[in-house]
Amino acid sequence: MSQGDARSPLVLVVDDDAAIRTVVRWQLDDEGFRVVEADDGQVALRAIREDHPALVVLDLSLPGLGGLDVLRALRGGRCGRSDTPVIVLSGRSGETDRIVGLDLGADDYLVKPFSPGELAARVRSVLRRSGADAAGETITVGGVRIEPASRRVVLADDDGAETDVELTPKEFDLLAFLAAHPRHVFTRVQLLDRVWSSSAEWLGEATVTEHVHRLRTKVEPDPSRPRLLRTVRGVGYQLVDDA
Asked: Is 1 a domain residue?
């Protein structure tokens, strides 16, 4: 592990290329982060469980247990905090894997070869965003309670009975973002930029449409006639609570 202030965020760098890990470690050291390394998926899962990193830089092309499998295990809560931020790394030919990784809940991505300075900037940005999300206040809208700190969504029926709603990480991010801006209409491009961040350039507007559709099936009493997640024709979407 790199030495540094014990209060500095710990970043786990997962890549089977020792040269890449070394360059990334040097850059993050210079930026004041502590760094721990892993060269395959199993070592990465063990490091996540034991070292509790503040963020994971994860190469998708790993020997044995691949990067997507590591991400699934992490987001599934099988190796520590399921909301640990993840920045994925992939080659230019791995566009499909990048899209799958983002849909599984990766917070950002970089394409190899990349600038170590840019990676450090992405690390700072993602940590700022995740810190802000964790400090967010609970929002209740139309019988849906959104708890940013625990990334929990609870649905109350007319009798007051509550049910936990299972959302993917990006479904939660989208719902929480819209709930934090009630009645504000966002275009699909704006939502790609705000919710998917720098990954927007690799994703089409249909990604937003699909996520809205899936959210409606989970939080709307009648998804065909949405009361909360509304379409503003020709513009985009808004979250509305008429009650």
From this structure: no
